[in-house]
Amino acid sequence: MAGEFGEVLRRLRTAAGLTQEELAERSEVSVRTIRGLETGKRTNPRMTTVQRLAEELALRPREREELLRAAVRRNEDGEQPAEPSAGAGAGVEAGAGSEPGTEAYADPTGAPADDGPGDPPAPTPPSTALHPAADPHSPSDSHSPSDPAEQLAALVTARWQREEEQRQVQDPFPLPVRWETAPEALTDHWANILRLPAQATAHPLDLDGELGEIAATYRRIPSRRLVVLGRSGSGKTILALRFVLDHLRTRGTSEPVPVIFSIGAWNPTTITLRDWLAAQLTRDHPGYAARGRGRESLAAELVESGRILPVLDGFDEIADGLRRPALEALNATTLPLVLTSRPAEYAAAVAETDVLTAAAAIRLTDLTLDDLAAYLPRTTRKPGREDPDANAWDPVLTALREQPRDRPDSPLATVLKTPLMVALARTIYSDTPDHDPACLLDTERFGSPEKLEDHLLDNFIPTVYRHRLHGSSSGGSHPGFDADRARHWLGYLAHHLTGLKTPDLAWWRLGNGLRRSTRTLVTAVLLALAIGLVDGAISFGVNGRVTGALLDASVVGLLAGLMFGFVHWLTYTAKGKQAAPSAVRLQLRRRPGATVWTAGPRLVIGTLGGAVFGSAYGFVVGMVITYAVTSDLSIIVHVGLVDGLVYGSVFGVATGLTFCLLGLLETPLDIDSAVNPRSLLTTNRGTVTTQLLVWAPTFGAVVGFGSGVAVDVFQGSVGPLVWTSEAAALLGVISGLGGAIGYALTLTAWGQWLVLTRIWLPLTGRLPWAVVTFLEDAYQRGVLRQAGAVYQFRHARLQQHLARHHRRATLHDDFIAPL
């Protein structure tokens, strides 16, 4: 909001000890502009102005991010926000190789930013718009800024602008991704694409274009369905990202919001497209799990009402046997969409069924030598060079130009036709001064394009891990990770994703790389140790006897491990599922209408589950304790049955009431809670912690009090029962804590993350102990990318290479992980 930005700016200026006049003199922004921003009279600051002010205030990373975030939010009157460059949050220096003293994005008008009350707003460069401008033919107030679709548009734009910056797409400028109209065999009838009536003559569209024209090209297609084809590394994902940002910049208020979905994770045989889209949207934006006007979630309502434009990236990453049903499912809908794929995989699916109905298709073309000559020299470091005009890429480019045209392209010329390989070559040879790109011309060493690609992929990880990252967005420092260890861990992750047949690296599924039996066994053993430790500590504190505490801890821990291990196996392992992160949090104060009431079903399920658990637990405990007194089998079984009846009733009531209470307190997250992997993990940990704070005292109190009531109820009818208040209190405390621990580690995503990913996988050398820090570090180094709540490898080709290397190393024992 404008008011928020003014308050932030005024507070930061005051903290820096500067007056408005002093800040104006330093930043070359007029006093009138600064005064207008601080008072709220100016509500739409240009990002060049915001960046200039941030530099002269010498802001720390957190303060800079706070100022930029305040600048990009829409105010309550629906005004358009500031328009940050792709470098927002990271300063305004131009990318490597850009002209010194210039900003990454210049004002196209050449006029000073925000200088004078009558200045018209400057045109926005295609790569810098943060929020969609209003359609000039649509009423500006047709949608409130609080409308879920409008809020989603702002969240999506901010997310992908940060991602574009992280991938250095604009540094020093985007590689020229171009395309041409795809062959007719991969395109539907033009009459269908153009939505022409019967008997009308259809004339094919010329869809040839380049990166900055993708949104305009899409709008020329009446059916609003487009297939983007390109070989591995040709720039399909970058094109999808640019489409989203450009479409949002020019989007009218009545148009749907483009959202990127990694379609490789979709199984069309188990879930419909619309349901899957709603589920993915909820995963990345948990606030959209809130109930809408009807009975469905906001995410489902947006999808069903056509307010989401799916950008389905990676059709070729769908499992081989699922591409045909996936294409059939896409043809069963009329949703406008953009679909990206490698040509061979899409053509194979088309041959089995049909083309994507009413969809035009374009095919990405290769980079040219002129493209390389314009790009690569500007990516090298300039300081310290004896000859400022010399460039490490000059000999390479000269050799490529001198290659005879009547001969096949050299391996290097072939490899450097895709943006992915150019980006890898830039990282290894432009960003690292002691690496000479001339070695890439060695045809004896690199006799084929495949060998050269493997060389670039092999050297990418060691290159990016050579340098220590000095800071993060949170202001902390990054630990150093050894390149060999990092390659091993990344290889395991890549192998893990290959086994799961998904590109999404989700923290709650990292343990799924283990065998099902291993997951269940590890969960049961660690749970038994945890509950046994708690039981032993409490027993020793109450009774003061080590032997008795150890015996009680061993029995309780063993039984709890077996019982909760069985519950885990029955709930997840037997069904081939995993615990998913909760999209709710618990609050004692609920907002009206925000809760979906599930108390009834929870009461029934909790009561039945608790009764089964309590009966089994009481039966076993009763027999074990009785066996220590007598060897009469009839007495042992009788006591076991009686204890099973008492414990079953007590635990059934306690579990039902506790589950019911948890259901009554559930509240969806705020709608603007955009998620990244760490924030989703933090949110889920907070949810589990709050659940435990409710579970432990409630469950313990009901068990402790209910045990006395149950003894009174069953007294005499099943025989004489002996029960003391001290025993009831001890059972309540142990049950409350033990039940809470068992619930958390067995039935929650965060608990499984803790048991498998934070303990077992690092213990066996598959992952580092600081897993989250390692993943964030890999993201900062450009190895991983963020896609909402999950990570993905920078490119599927890199994932495949690392997975193959990991399998080879494991097969030949090239790497022995420490235990």
Annotation keywords:
mainly alpha; 819 residues; two-stranded antiparallel sheet; 51% helix; 11 strands; 7-stranded mixed sheet
Task: Write a structural description.
The protein is mainly alpha-helical and 819 residues long. Helices cover 51% and strands 6% of the residues. It contains 28 helices and 11 strands. The chain has a 7-stranded mixed β-sheet, with helices on both faces. α12 links the parallel β5 (308-313) and β6 (337-341). α6 crosses α9 (236-249) and α10 packs across α11 (298-304). The longest helix is centred in the C-terminal third of the chain and has 38 residues, at 677-714. The two termini are 52 Å apart.
Mass-distribution shape: elongated
Quaternary state of the chains: single chain
Pairing-aware structural class of the strands and helices? mainly alpha
Output the radius of gyration: 31 Å
What is the beta-strand fraction?
5-15%
**Major sheet description:** 7 strands, mixed
Q: Indicate the percent of residues in helices.
A: 40-55%
Instruction: Give me the count of strands.
Output: 11
Low-confidence stretches: 74-143, 472-477, 586-597, 814-819
Separation of termini? 52 Å
Q: How many DSSP helices?
A: 28
Provide a brief overview of the structure:
The chain is mainly alpha-helical. It contains 28 helices and eleven strands. The longest helix is centred in the last third of the chain and has 38 residues.
